[in-house]
Amino acid sequence: MGRERELAFLYDSWQRATQGDGHVVLLAGEAGMGKSRLLEALAERVRGEPHRLLRCQCSPYHRNSALFPITALLRNRLNISHDVPNRENLDRISRMLERVGRQAHSSTLLLAELLEVPSEDTLSAIEMTPNQRKNETLAILEDVLMAPLDGPVLLLLEDAHWSDQTTQTLIERLLNRIGKEHALVLITHRPELKTNWSEHPHGTLVTCKQIGHEHCAALIRNVASRMQMDDTLIRAIVTRSDGVPLFAEELTKAVLDLRTLGASAVPLTLQDSLMARLDRLGSAKDIAQIASVIGRQFSYALLEAIAGASDIDLRSALADLRESGLIFEAGNDGEASYSFNHSLVQEAAYESLSRSRRQSLHKGIADHLESQSNATGDSEPTLLAHHYSGAGEPERSFRYWLLAADRCGQRLAFVESVANLTSALAEAERITDPKLRTRLKLDAQLKLGATLAIHKGPQTSEAGRALQEAKALAEQANAGPQLFQATWGLYLNAARNRRLDEVEVLSEELTTISQEIDDEDFKIEALHHRWGTAYFFGQTAKLIEYAAEGIEHYDRDRHHKFSYTFAGHDPGACAYCSRAVGLGIAGRSRSVRAALDAGLALATSLQHPLTLAFFQSFACYAMHLVRDSDGCREFAEQLKQVSARYDLPAPHAVALFVRGAADALQGDVAHALKQMEPSYEAALGYGFTGVLPGVILADVLASAGRNQEALALVTRLLDQSSTPERGPFVSELWRIRGEMALRRSAGNSQDAERFLGTALRIADEQGANVFRLNAGIPLARMLAEGGRREEAKSVLDHVNAVRLDEWDGPEIAIASQLRSNID
Q1: Which end of the chain is less packed: N or C, by CB atoms within 10 Å?
Q2: Dihedral (CA of 409, 413, 415, 416) sign
Q3: Which of 207, 234, 251 is the last residue of a domain?
Q4: Per-run averaged pLDDT (10 residues), the chain, 823 residues
Q5: For the whole model, what pTM was predicted?
Q6: Order of strands, edge to edge, in the sheet holding 337-340?
């Protein structure tokens, strides 16, 4: 009653969906507004029509479990069970996937992984990155949910305000394809869910508000059809219910149970109504209260294990609760289970328990679920965490929140992982033992920092704040390895943001911490940050020295594990490509390729895509530094293939950018810029190569005669830095700034001389021999043209004093010719 117009709209949407005009309808409204009843009414109306009904229920206990409503649906539909061999479960998955056109074995493995069905086969990292696994898993779920196997699809997703972020991502993907599907998706949610789904062309929002007095009265008369109610009583119920259908229905039932028609019989609130009805159910009230602790939905098996009642008594109580309308059967595939008819009913029963009784029941439920998970290997960590929290056992709750975070992280469900870690930290705060509390908080805080670094980026403020808190906890706990890890993360955060003063301090701290730990395995990461610091400060000789030491010390079996803890790439591969870059800057061009070839062999053998992409990115730039256009293009093509295969957008942008830079080295400037400009921001954002992409693009812009744009670019990069005269490649920014100032006007010669002089000084200090030549030649030429021949000769003598026997570029010959011309 009162929702006829909404039901008519839903049925019309269903009729259009059966013709291939799919749609997503969002039913929004506060609790009790009749959203679920609309779904039930539509399902009943289409019962006689061919269709495939899929029902998903979100849960407040699983709002941080990635894809929980979908996995629960599929486990029930496929009858996944630990009571049968894993092979049988895999066969069930495979047969279903074949029906939707997914014959690939990899699809079976991915869905089995999602449903936690063990398999002897696995997908290695070299076959598919975590990001690819996530995207492909979502694509599989799209096909599974939208396949019209038994007719058009009617997909119901209830209580989406409790849905996890990955489920919401799946809904967004469904919106993008549903217009051509024979499917209708109905989603109920409360107003607190904020999405833009209704703004999509194939999404429609229907807001369920209070029903009017007439409709409310009609609903009351319908519920009370077996008893005549006068208008005075009906008006009293209408007033108390405030137009909320659930309230009107429950208040009416409470009056009917009292078998009195006086207005004074109407309970004041829904809570009063529900409790009055429960009180009149005798022993069934206790069963309802126990069930309410389990959740809105509960299985007979779990209730039987916790309630301590005989089978006869338990079934009798459940029958009474069903007859009262407070619960209904919700079994799937033969499993006896039930559901409260509304979340508010469950909440009312739960709130009626004393605190001690609730804790006791939560403890019994948690212990039972834990023993089952130990026996079967199947656990729902967020559910266990919730019950142990309710039981007043924060340490056990903490450990399950941490497990849930790890599982979400493996699936790249980072939003859910962060939420679970936040819950773990909240539980840790409840622990009374200060040492244990600090240690557990440290574990969670380090994981939070690492998760945010992967999800948001190691340079983000969110990751920095989490790591700063982890560092403080590690200092408090005097935990050396954890302190090293937190400080390493902060060091990388500062370096990626070009806050070199902080880098210097943190690098010294890392050296001190590693010496105090005195662990041989940590030595490689101590070296890693040393050559990293040398790189970020532009200390060329130290970069070459420390990277060579890292290559010598590196042991693949012992040290590759740090790829997953610190910088996200293998330290040995980093040492090779860092050394190659240092050699290029030092002018030892003939040694660069040998270092890269050795490093490429290692990076390829590791089967770690992020390391391979990182290495190839540096290799591209190393080849560009020594003006090897063929080598630059070769590594760019390899990087393009790797980044496309493993869906790595930032390295892919680097590949496009550097491939264009290789064209520029061969003189094809116009074509080069068409590739470089669209990919520049993403290439610069990759972060590890500092301002080098800006240097390269500015040089090419200048070659194309776009001097003003080149000058604006280098000026912006210098202005953005808190230390504009420190860092790798900054001398090149000053050199370009000087050349562009001179090109603008001869009257800018003083500025140009100052900028080129700064570039030469920085290159000298850094031992960047190639950049010394790059800055010295235009400075000497400008001085000579201005009649300052002796000063020009002094500059050229200075840059020629460094022997560059391995340098194959034209700069040495240009400098020598310029010196001869001046003489």
Answers
A1: C
A2: negative
A3: 207
A4: 76 92 89 79 89 90 89 89 84 92 90 86 70 88 92 93 92 92 92 89 85 71 70 72 69 68 58 74 88 90 90 91 84 70 82 92 93 72 93 95 89 86 96 95 93 82 93 93 92 85 89 85 86 92 96 93 84 96 93 95 91 94 94 95 86 94 94 95 85 95 94 93 87 95 82 94 94 93 90 87 77 81 77
A5: 0.77
A6: 297-299, 337-340, 327-329
